[in-house]
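Section 5: illustrative case.
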């Protein structure tokens, strides 16, 4: 929620801060935006250690507490304190983007794991839509309170609500950790009790306990970050890293970053936007949010019907095609049509690469492996945040050329999805996490 919100409305929020000590100007917007992504990358990297040592549930509680602290710090107008708050918020987001998919996967029956995993992206899309709707009230140059309004503080405080709600939920309703973590801690009775609440059959719950005990017995020691690059996990780790790269280099953040300029019909930073044009921008920004939410719901049906691999291939191919057309129409300066291709790209991303990265990572990797994949995701966010404005400048590739580069990445990704990625639909957690482990497959065939 916070990253997308800041990325989409950084310029509008800066207007509220003019004259204050903070005063985010053009030269600081990149720093304010990217420092959150940097905090998220650190949080994602360390989340595997937190989830393995303290559990998935406690890790989410820690993330919520950090969110409350981060929000409090961002409400100060001091540059240093606000940036510190952004780092803390980023750290919390990094933990959430890694631990939440893991938690969802480990409490979900195999036949429902894809569906429940997609609800993670759905909640993100709802947050995106909320941020865009809140942005409508941000004062503009035509408003009397431009430069003096404290509305930005209200927007920054919104994450307090879901954080408090989830803390209460984890203490009152969801009092147990996942069965997988409980088995790792030797708490078999508690794990079986949780599984019995998830499965209608007691026998099925016992079968899941036995599978988890088998996995623990084959794991001679705690999985370290270094072990992820050894034979057992190497293939799965590299596939997870590549998927994280593909998700970001499908161009989603670049398209989002330039969407306001496309909607306004000009790339001139000095252009004066009329009130009528601003209303059009607000409308299409809201449509982006609505499209993301709608596509996230459709993704649930697509994943259930076609499986992870097919959904990834379809969505990635659509992103490729849309980027080519978007590039052409921007080159032709036909912004009237270009804005609809922004909506199409949002749709293509949110039925596939958006929700399915976390779903697939949680399918094939242990906790620390997921953290590596999500860490890669955030590093790519930072690279694109700093790099795309450079490569899309008139002196390099221009905006349309930059989108063609992302289309090429999607083409490479399509080959990768077709030839390398395997389907995990319907597999148990033990089966999916050994899908790329040749030793385990050979052992199973011998048995």
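Designed sequence:
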């Amino acid at each position: 929620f916070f990253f997308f919100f800041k990325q989409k409305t950084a310029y509008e929020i800066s207007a509220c801060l003019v004259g204050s000590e903070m005063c985010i100007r053009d030269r600081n917007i990149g720093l304010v935006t990217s420092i959150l992504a940097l905090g998220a990358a650190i949080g994602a990297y360390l989340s595997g250690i937190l989830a393995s040592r303290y559990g998935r549930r406690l890790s989410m509680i820690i993330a919520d507490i950090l969110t409350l602290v981060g929000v409090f710090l961002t409400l100060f107008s001091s540059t240093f304190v606000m940036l510190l708050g952004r780092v803390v918020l980023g750290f919390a987001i990094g933990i959430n983007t890694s631990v939440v998919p893991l938690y969802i996967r480990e409490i979900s029956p195999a036949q429902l794991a894809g569906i429940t995993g997609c609800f993670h992206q759905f909640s993100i899309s709802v947050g995106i839509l909320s941020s865009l709707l809140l942005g409508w009230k941000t004062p503009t140059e035509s408003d009397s309170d431009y430069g003096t309004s404290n509305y930005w503080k209200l927007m920054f405080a919104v994450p307090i609500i879901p954080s408090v709600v989830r803390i209460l939920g984890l203490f009152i309703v969801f009092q147990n950790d996942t069965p997988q973590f409980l088995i790792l801690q030797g708490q078999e009775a508690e794990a079986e009790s949780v599984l019995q609440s998830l499965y209608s059959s007691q026998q099925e719950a016992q079968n899941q306990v036995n599978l988890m005990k088998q996995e623990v017995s084959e794991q001679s020691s705690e999985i370290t970050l270094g072990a992820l690059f050894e034979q057992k996990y190497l293939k799965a780790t590299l596939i997870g890293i590549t998927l994280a790269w593909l998700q970001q280099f499908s161009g989603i953040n670049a398209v989002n970053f330039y969407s306001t300029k496309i909607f306004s019909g000009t790339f001139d930073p000095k252009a004066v936007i009329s009130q009528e044009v601003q209303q059009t921008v607000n409308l299409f920004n809201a449509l982006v949010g609505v499209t993301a939410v709608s596509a996230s719901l459709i993704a649930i049906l697509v994943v259930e019907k076609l499986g992870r691999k097919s959904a990834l291939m379809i969505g990635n191919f659509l992103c490729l095609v849309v980027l080519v057309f978007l590039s052409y129409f921007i080159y032709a300066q036909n912004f009237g049509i270009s804005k609809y291709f922004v909506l199409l790209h949002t749709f293509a991303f949110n039925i596939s690469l958006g929700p399915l990265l976390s779903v697939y990572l949680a399918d094939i990797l242990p906790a620390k492996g997921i953290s590596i994949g999500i860490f890669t995701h955030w590093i790519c966010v930072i690279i694109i945040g700093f790099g795309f404005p450079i490569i899309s400048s008139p002196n390099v590739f221009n905006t349309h050329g930059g989108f063609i580069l992302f289309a090429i990445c999607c083409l490479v990704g399509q080959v990768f999805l077709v030839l390398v990625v395997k389907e995990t639909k319907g597999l148990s957690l033990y089966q999916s996490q050994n899908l790329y482990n040749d030793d385990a497959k050979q052992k199973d065939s011998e048995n």
